[in-house]
Design brief:
Major facilitator superfamily (MFS) profile domain-containing protein, 27 helices, Growth Hormone, Chain: A, disordered C terminus, 2 strands, 1% strand
Amino acid sequence: FDPVVAMGLLQKIVRNEATKSDPPEIYNARVVLISLVACGGALLFGMDMGIIGGVLTMDSFKKEYGLMDQPKAVLASLEGNVVSVIQAGAFAGALLSMWLANRVGRRFSLIIASILVFVGVALQAAASGHIEAMYVGRLVAGVAIGIASSVNPLYVSENAPRGIRGLLTGLYQLSIVTGLTLAFWINYGSLLHIKGHSQYIIPLSLQAFPAVILLVGMLLANESPRFLAQRHPDKALAVLAKLRNLPADHPYIVQEMDGISRQLEEERALAVNASSFSLLREAFTVKSYRRRSLLCITLMMWSNLTGTNAMTYYSPRIFASVGLSGSASGLFATGVYGIVKMVSCAIFIVFVTDTLGRRKSLLWTGIVQGLALFYVGFYIRFDPPVTGESVSAPGYVALVAIYIFAAVSDGLSIMTETDLLQFGWGPVVWTYSSEIPPARLRALMMGMATASQWLFNFVVAKATPSMFATLGTNGFGTYFVYGTFCFIMVVFAFFFVPETAGVALEQMDELFEKDSLRDKLLFRKGPRLSSRENAADEGVLDKKNAEHVEVA
């Protein structure tokens, strides 16, 4: 591995001052490999989302579980239960992770998650027609996914060098859509080439594949230097030096370790005399904090009400509703759907160079999503596909609309010369929720945001099958419901979401304390802080030597 060659390639992809000024040794294969392995948790999440929707359409699964002759409403309710129970587990896992990650560490939390996956997948594969066992298996796997979804980004960000933190964190989103794509094609291949019970058992069993990567990788990987610094600073220094491929006494290592130590001291000072109840009360009684708490919760709600997870969980049914009859055609279309999501994500990560900011991204992606869903709804309502006939020209336009929806809704994170770029309601709400809380309440507000995300993910997964069964022919009303939510959230973002890209973290209080009616409605942009000043204030670099790092 030649660090000089790697740096040349890196500087073409990630163009910021940090990658130009940092020692080339810190951008090495080890840190990239650790990030990829840790993202096994994201791969797991993506594979589960993709596999279960396809399995539910297989006749072999329906026969095994006695679903072939069930009324439409009963079948829709059962499908909703099977899909949504994993979100219930993830909700519990996300709450558990807040304690677990600080108690046993990021690395061991991911090991626990991978072991829980094996248990959950084994129960699902061995259920043999017992729907209760399927529920329990998916609940256990959901707890694992909830833990991994919270700990994965944390572990990656704490191991990554500052210059490529955005890029490596973006691998989490890319891993989710990669898992989705793998799952879609696994379902398609299984339907074509496997008969009998194995047709659905093999896809369910393959959900354990990412857990194998995660378990083996975490057994060989290091703990996060930041977590080690809380109890074992000497070990933290050794791990950091190994990660950065530099001697422990190198100025860069000393400087980064000092920054970690100062940040930990500040957090300890903030935690004095702060009970959970007092922090919760503070989050909702102080005006500025209340606005931020409610934004963290509501943005996660809106991100689910876009319908993107509904489109993913039930994509075979969605493609059937626009005229792709037959399980094979539907699963093939979902495979293409996954490829669109994965390729668009990768293209943006590598090539996009213009910044939109948080607010503009929420606005334009919401509009595109709403228009795409409304077109599909109008097509199904006024020119519905006819079983046995080929897809009409408007039907192909509806397919394109679904793929456009996939391309803009998935979201991603990109590091450029000026900022950490965010596109779509997926990653933007996570970045936004992590940067607007005051330091004293950051863990609490992020916990509420994560819980809100999984709660409404559960609601969407549970409700969507019933919506398809009851809201018009082929469920055309479902698209109008989610499309309307997209337009409502655009209005919400326009009036209540201020732009925070480049705003000084210490100026967030001022941004959220505006009193005039115009300011309350429009949230005029607050003072901005250059990335150079932000780097120094965070203790990553000395004031006089501060170079560009992520502001997000």
